[in-house]
Amino acid sequence: HFARAQPGRSPVKTRWVVLTTPWYECIAAAMPFLVPGQSWTYIDPAVYAGPEPGEQDVVMAPHRAPHLAPVFAAFPDRITLYETENVLDPASPWVGPSTRLRLACPANPWLNYSAANASMFGDGVQALRKIHNLPARAAGADRPIDVLFVVSLNKRRVDILSKLQLFGAKVHVPPGPVFGNALAILEARSKLLLNVHYYTPGVFESFRVVPAAHRGTPVISERSERNEGTEWAPCYPYADLVEATLSALKGMSRGT
Fold first, then answer.
1. Helices and strands, counts by H and E, the chain
2. Which residues pair with 141 in a beta bridge?
3. CA separation for the pair 104, 46 (Å, rounded)
4. Which residues contact 99 (CB under 8 A, 6 or more apart)?
5. Neighbour order of strands in the sheet with 55-60
6. For tag attachment on the chain, is the N or C end more exposed, with fewer CB atoms within 10 Å?
7. Which residues are CB-contacts of 188 (< 8 A; sequence separation ≥ 6)?
8. List of residues 6+ apart from 96 with CB closer than 8 A
9. Would you call 81 exposed, middle or buried from its count of C-beta atoms within 10 A (0-12, 13-18, 19+)?
10. Cβ neighbours around 51 below 10 Å, total
11. Which are the contacts of 76, defined by CB distance < 8 A and separation ≥ 6?
12. Is 172 exposed, middle or buried (0-12, 13-18, 19+ CB in 10 A)?
C-alpha cells in the first residue's frame, strides 16, 4: 500500500510528511511510534509541491489540506496518503473530505492507523507500535487531578465526566488543545487519563493514547471496534466507564 517507483527505476527514499495544519501537534507526538528510528518532515501545506527528487512521500492527514489534491494526484507512484481520522461513523465530519480526496486521487495508495478504520475504504494498515516496554508510574508524587480529559467535548463525553464529578472525582478538562510539554506536565499531575470516543463506531484513538502510555500515564479507554487498543490500556464498554474509572482511582488510593 506504499507508493512504488515504476519498474526499472532506482529505489527511492521514503519521506514522512506532517503538514502543519490545525492540530498537527497531535500527529507529530505520535510519529516516533509510527516510524521508530526514522525522521519526519514538517511542511506548510501552502508550499508543499510534492516529493523531492529521488524520494517518495507519505503524507499525514491529507484531507486537512484538500487544496493539495492536484499535487497528490500528480504523483500516484510517489505519494502515499495516510488516514488519521475516524471514517467509520457516517456522522464524522471527516468522512466527506476523505471521500472527496480519494475520488480526486484514485491512483494514490492509502495507509491507516487502524485495521477497523481501514476496512471502510480498503486502506493498508500501519499502526503505532511500542518502542520500549511501557514504564510503570512512579509512586509518591502529588497528583491533584483525578481524571484528565484533553480533547473536544460532546454529549456522550460530557455525560461520563459529569457522572465522575457527581461521585467526587476531580476532573480536569483544559479549555483548549494541549500538546507537547504542556500535556506531559498535566499528565504528571493526574492520576489517570480517560479516553472516550467522540464518534461511534469508535476507533481507538492511538494518536492520543500511545504517547501518554509511553510516558507512564495510566489510561482508561472506552472499548473500540475490533477490541483495538487493549495492548495500551484497559478498555471498557461505555456503560462501564464510570465504574471502571472510580475503581481504578480507589485502587490507586490504596496503592494497589
1. 8, 11
2. none
3. 19
4. none
5. 40-43, 13-19, 55-60, 79-83, 110-112, 124-125
6. C
7. 141, 143
8. none
9. buried
10. 22
11. 3, 105, 107, 108
12. middle
What is the distance between the alpha carbons of residues 76 and 109, in angstroms, rounded to a whole number?
A: 8
Cα separation, 187 vs 163, in Å, equals 21
Residue type, 100: R
Per-residue pLDDT of the chain (256 residues; tens, 9 = 90+): 666 545 455 557 999 999 999 999 999 999 999 999 899 999 999 999 999 999 999 999 999 999 999 999 999 999 999 999 999 999 999 999 999 999 999 999 999 999 999 999 999 999 999 988 888 887 767 899 999 999 999 999 999 999 999 999 999 999 999 999 999 999 999 999 999 999 999 999 999 999 999 999 999 999 999 999 999 999 999 999 999 999 999 999 876 5
Pairing of strands 55-60, 190-195: unpaired
Please give the single-letter amino acid code of residue 9: R
Distance CA 245, CA 220 (A): 7
| pLDDT the model gives residue 3 | 64
